[in-house]
Amino acid sequence: MPPNVQIPRDAPRPVGAPVGAPAGATAGSGPDASVVLRARGVTKAFVGHTVLADVDLDLRAGQVHGLVGENGAGKSTLMKILAGVHTADAGTVELDGRPVTFHHPLQAQQAGISTVFQEFNLLPERTVAENVWLGREPRRRGLVDVERMNRDTAALLDDLGVTGLRPQQRVRTLSVAEQQVVEIAKAVSFDARIIAMDEPTAALADHEVGLLYAIIRGLTARGVAILYVSHRLKEIFDLCDTITVLKDGQQVTTRPAGELDDAELVRLMVGREMSAFFPAPAAGTAPGEVLLELRSAGNGYVDGVDLTLRAGEIVGIAGLQGSGRTELLEGIFGVHPFTRGELAVAGRTVRVRSPRAAVRAGLALVTEDRKATGLALDLSILDNALGAVRAAFPGRTGAARREIPGLLSNLEVAARALDQEVQFLSGGNQQKVVLARWLATRPRVVLMDEPTRGIDVGAKHAIYELMRVLAAEGVAVLMVSSELPEVIGMADRILVMRDGVVAGELPPGSTEETVLSVATGTSSSRTAEPEAER
After folding, report:
1. What is the rounded distance in angstroms from the CA atom of residue 272 to the CA atom of residue 497?
2. Are 332 and 293 within 8 A, CB to CB?
């Protein structure tokens, strides 16, 4: 949580509301709740390719409606139709029972439908108030009434239950969570009765998600209808009353959230059973020689780290935000080189002072933020896939160029051609290009920081399978993840970090409670017995 923004208290839950339901939901909510927006038969095609076909959607006052599906399922297209970015080719949309057609986002906003997109649309050099009222500034005697604009913005923030964020602050000084509050305040300023949110937590740290939850619950308590798009199933079940599943532009189902669980929702999204969502190690996979060893390693971020990673092993790193997980990987990879202790690769002590030196030593790092540090978005798929080889092994560029098409094919990257700019790929396909970039260097140790963040469940499963293949081929994998089921499901051993040190090591099959107890310091043991068989 940003230090100067306080999480508002949850809005009062009505008597009879189901436990765990968002504020605003009541025991009688459901078919008899007020339908604010009704869409029927919505269809859209681009260049002859149908991306939405005959989709129905009801949004009800005071409820959160989850919209889920793999990348390319049609979620964003449906949101953009409701937001006035696109116009449907067929079907109807009714607002309060009256047919509406929007040809511009401003029309949708004026009708009470606002959208908070994943990519923020804010001007960094302007203030919070100026961004909220951009193009609609209150005027007095022909001039912008700054005092009234600030006062109205303060009232909006107060209405959302947010304190510590001032209307006069410039947006460039705000954290990502604070910028999201500004986007939501802007949406509410249009007297929005419907707010659509596209992957609202994608760029948020774990400790910032609570702010969003509280704001959503406050909005639903006031009767606002929320359309919520997210790949994070926990959020869907935490927040949503109803869930609509899309697949390949088709509506698979719309059901109350209480009738679904994780396994069933995943099956509906990907079209197949996913009981083995976390694939088991390939037959014959066993730990081999030590490929990475740290002895009392430390820098300005982590201290006294002892770590051994063997060929064929997947080791997970868990811990709370700020515990030093990412910093440990960056130390190993030479982003922030270790200043004390030793690092050895395949039994040979090495001094890794830069990422280039790390790559040449046989290391690879899949970074946490693929857009900021993993890819050059305006370059082609091929140029991105060749980037690490060109930088570390220029003499191997020709051979790598011949290998890349097969590598991308094995990763099942969906793209029209190798010269396509990577910015136009889905999140899952972008992540696969990142993986191709590093696999082209033929690493012996792969460091993965949040490898499945912001991608759909199908792409997640493909990356899990790739990790198992790498392990079977004798590669060592060190993975950081904030999703405890992912760590528990994939790791052969779990290291738990706290305050820059390794606080404990846990075996496979440890429960989330056990991991959290070590991460928070409520357990002092360095090791624990398995809580369940893997």
Report:
1. 36
2. no
CA pair distance 512, 520, nearest whole angstrom: 12
Domains and CATH numbers, the chain: 35-270 (3.40.50.300), 276-362+443-534 (3.40.50.300), 377-386+396-441 (no CATH)
Q: Which of 25-34, 324-333, 425-434, 521-530 has the lowest mean pLDDT?
A: 25-34
**Three-class SS of 437-495:** HHHCCCCCEEEEECCCCCCCHHHHHHHHHHHHHHHHCCCEEEEECCCHHHHHHHCCEEE
Helix (H, G, I), strand (E, B) or coil at 373: helix
Its pTM stands at: 0.69
Burial of 239 (0-12, 13-18, 19+ CB in 10 A): buried
The DSSP bridge partners found for residue 459 are none
Amino acid letter for position 468: R
Closest of 485, 70, 30 to residue 277, by C-alpha: 485
Going by their DSSP bridges, the two strands 290-298 and 305-310 should be labelled as: antiparallel
Structure tokens at 290: 């030590």
- Does pLDDT of 211 surpass 90? no
What is residue 393's predicted lDDT score, i.e. its pLDDT? 95
State the Cα–Cα distance between residues 371 and 469, nearest whole angstrom. 25
Report the distance separating Cα 206 and Cα 493, nearest Å: 23
Residue type, 462: A
Of 234 and 433, the structure prediction assigns the larger pLDDT to 433
CA distances from 380 to 101, 177, 200, 425, 433 (A): 37, 31, 28, 10, 10
Tell me the HSE value of 295 on the side-chain side, using a 13 A CA sphere: 9
- 219 membership: H or E segment, kind and range: helix 209-221
What would the pLDDT profile of 454-510 be if each residue is shown by its tens digit?
787 878 888 999 999 999 999 999 999 988 888 999 999 999 999 999 999 999 888
d(CA 100, CA 87): 11
